[in-house]
Write a structure and sequence with these properties.
The chain is built from 29 helices and eleven strands. With about 675 residues, it is an alpha/beta fold. The protein folds into three domains: about 35-300, no CATH class; about 310-420, no CATH class; about 450-600, no CATH class.
Length: about 675
């Protein structure tokens, strides 16, 4: 199922204008205003359904309670329903929907958009959240949730510190969606065509403020956010005012649904029709969840359902957003299996401030924070649980090793990404944080992270280097493969990769058919663990990185390697010069060269047709995954003045490229259908 928030609307050239600019232009050019009949509406030329009588609303609320809904849920749903009598009928015969870990009872009906809120923990905005682990001033962190109780239930809950915390987070989410998923002109012109998925939740406040009972869109938050914008509604109105003042809520709906457009001047008529189109949405309302598998609760099931819609489709969340959603599911599974206690869970999730982490005896250095996540979650004995969490929010039956490590590495970078979000786009620290992501994810594929029983010990880089050198010398010439003989070196590598990727000392491998070194950064990192020079370089990277200095080269004896930079930017050794920086090209081609050009894979001898098919499918999967990562990085490239570069310049004439992609998609889709038919055939 495609991502409805992205794929439902096809923007035209008219759609890229800002609503305020459109209204100003309309006011100035009333004589050229098109007739209202030219504006497509889901309701055509007919009137909007009339605002329901309060008697009908009350009967629907009573029917909801009789159907087993909490009174607050029943009341909110009755007021949101466009046709309360239809709601009463549907409550008697809900649809049963199979979902991860259980069954949902749901009904399909039209709802008033002012009676809905976008779920304030919408995963689409995860990459821009500021977590407490970042230690950023003035940020209280994301809201908690959604959460639910065990067993059969109808409700979720989300919690914030106080009303201002909730409003800050909902405003951040609103701004992100309006900037990155602009649907408002499409909704104003056409309405919301595809149903949103609605859940009942309580918005709690830790300061004792009464909780707010709300209907929220678990899927469809972008559509509802943009519709609220068209309706000129604020978060304060939808989250706090309308739920407590139903008279004002009904007056607002009536001010749109009960006015005759023909009685207005052209600009006013246009404005009203835009709001009429945005006023009502089709919806699927989740009434009740019943678990059928141990370990699943309503919140986990809903997260899995939403992930299935957005992680794998043709137009999903961003790469970071997808990995973040999977990471959240992994943490839920591990906590549900009692692998993580609450402090460690919250630390891994980035929910502890540096001060709180220190009290719990957990690392607060950025490189140690990230390494702690790798050490805790990449271990082989956690593999089954990690993969279970990833499968919860994807449509895949199996999880590749690279997907598993990417999810964990993305989580490791959560505090770093959080602090970067708070900085100016031209801030060097933010630029390093954004630049390091792809390389860091690849470094996390170092196989020893999963096979060696290492941990973050908090030792200084100097002490850790001393232990790593002793470890190396003890095993030189000894073919033994005891994993314990790697614990110090692996810990050093995990700390150093943070700084080497941030400063460009380790970069992701070259792509394409060039003769460039195709080794991934994790392979360079592995080579550095096998000699004293590499260990000294890793330790120096930690020492320099923690002081905000580009990691510098040292010799095998530990002295700085000095040099001068020529007019072309290349460094040349010079004992009287400055310490030279560790650079990716220097590591690849001078310090740890392969000695040979890595060729394109060729057909092995005696390869059967089935073996060749498997090999080629694997190659294609890796190439497509690489394209996905490259597109994600391309989307994040910002111009000097700020803002994504390609969002302003576009991609000129990609037709031939798109044609190739469509041909590939068509062929793979055909083979997928063949496989489905083969699977569905009864055996002999």
């Amino acid at each position: 199922m495609p991502d409805q928030d992205d794929a439902e609307y096809e923007q035209t050239a008219e759609d890229v204008e800002e609503p305020d600019a459109v209204e100003d232009e309309l006011d100035a050019t009333e004589d050229t205003e098109q007739d209202s009949a030219a504006i497509w509406s889901r309701f055509g030329d007919s009137d909007l359904p009339p605002l329901p009588k309060m008697a009908a609303v009350n009967r629907a609320a009573k029917a909801g309670v009789e159907a087993g809904l909490p009174s607050e849920f029943a009341t909110a749903l009755a007021h949101a329903a466009v046709d309360p009598s239809e709601l009463r009928t549907l409550l008697r015969r809900p649809t049963r929907v199979n979902i991860a870990g259980g069954v949902i009872e749901a009904i399909d009906l039209d709802l008033y958009v002012p009676g809905l809120v976008p779920l304030p923990t919408n995963n689409r905005t995860m990459e821009k959240r500021v977590y407490p682990a970042a230690g950023a001033e003035g940020y209280m962190g994301p809201l908690t949730g959604p959460r639910s109780g065990p067993g059969e239930t109808t409700s979720l809950w989300i919690e914030g510190e106080d009303v201002s915390h909730v409003q800050d987070e909902t405003e951040r989410a609103r701004e992100f969606i309006l900037a990155n998923n602009n649907l408002r002109e499409s909704i104003a012109a056409r309405g919301i065509a595809m149903p949103v998925n609605v859940v009942f939740f309580k918005l709690r406040h830790r300061d004792g403020e009464p909780p707010m009972p709300l209907l929220g869109t678990a899927d469809g938050s972008s559509r509802v956010t943009n519709a609220h914008h068209v309706l000129a509604l604020t978060d304060r109105q939808t989250h706090y005012h309308f739920p407590t003042n139903r008279d004002d809520y009904r007056r607002f709906i009536g001010s749109i649904s009960e006015v005759d457009p023909e009685a207005l001047r052209p600009a006013g008529r246009r404005r009203l029709i835009r709001q009429r189109n945005a006023l009502i949405t089709p919806a699927r309302v989740f009434l009740r969840f019943t678990p059928t598998k141990d370990g699943y609760d309503y919140a986990r099931a809903v997260n899995a359902f939403v992930g299935m819609l957005h992680v794998d489709p043709p137009r999903p969340w961003s790469q970071t957003g997808k990995l973040e959603a999977m990471a959240e599911a992994v943490l839920d599974v591990l906590r549900g299996a009692d692998v993580l206690d609450d402090p460690v869970h919250d630390y891994l999730a980035g929910l502890l401030t540096p001060e709180q982490a220190k009290i719990e005896g957990l690392p607060i250095e950025r490189d140690e924070q990230a390494a702690f996540v790798l050490a805790a979650l990449l271990r082989e004995h956690h593999r089954e649980l990690v993969e279970r969490g990833i499968r919860d929010v994807t449509a895949k039956k199996s999880v590749s090793a690279s997907r598993r490590t990417d999810v964990i590495a993305e989580l490791a970078l959560r505090p770093t990404r959080s602090i970067a979000t708070t900085l100016d786009t031209n801030d060097p620290e933010r630029q390093r944080a954004e630049r390091m992501r792809a390389s860091y994810l690849r470094c996390a594929r170092l196989a020893r992270y999963a096979t060696v029983p290492w941990k973050v010990t908090g030792r200084s880089p100097e002490k850790l280097l001393e232990a790593a050198l002793g470890e190396l010398r003890a095993v030189l010439g000894n073919p033994q493969v005891d994993p314990e003989a790697w614990v110090n070196r692996v810990e050093l590598a995990a700390l150093a990769q943070y700084h080497l990727t941030a400063w460009g000392g380790l970069q992701r491998e070259a792509m394409g058919s060039t003769d460039a070194d195709k080794r991934g950064p994790h392979q360079i990192l592995e080579a550095m663990l096998h000699d004293e020079h590499g260990l000294r370089l890793l330790a120096q990277a930690v020492i320099d990185g923690r002081t905000g200095t580009h990691p510098r080269r040292v010799t095998e004896e530990g002295d700085f390697q000095r040099g001068t930079r020529d007019e072309y930017g290349a460094w040349h050794e010079d004992p009287a010069g400055h310490p030279m920086p560790i650079e990716d090209r220097w590591l690849r081609y001078e310090t740890y060269p392969t000695g040979t050009t890595l060729p394109r894979p060729v057909t092995p001898p005696n390869e059967s047709p089935r073996m060749k098919t498997t090999r080629l499918k694997g190659q294609i999967a890796r190439l497509i995954e690489q394209i996905d990562l490259d597109i994600d990085e391309l989307a994040s490239v910002e111009e000097t003045q700020g803002g994504p570069l390609l969002d302003k310049e576009g991609w000129a004439s990609p037709n031939e490229l798109l044609s190739h992609l469509m041909n590939v998609h068509s062929q793979i889709n055909y083979w997928a259908k063949v496989a489905e038919r083969q699977t569905s055939r009864p055996s002999g």
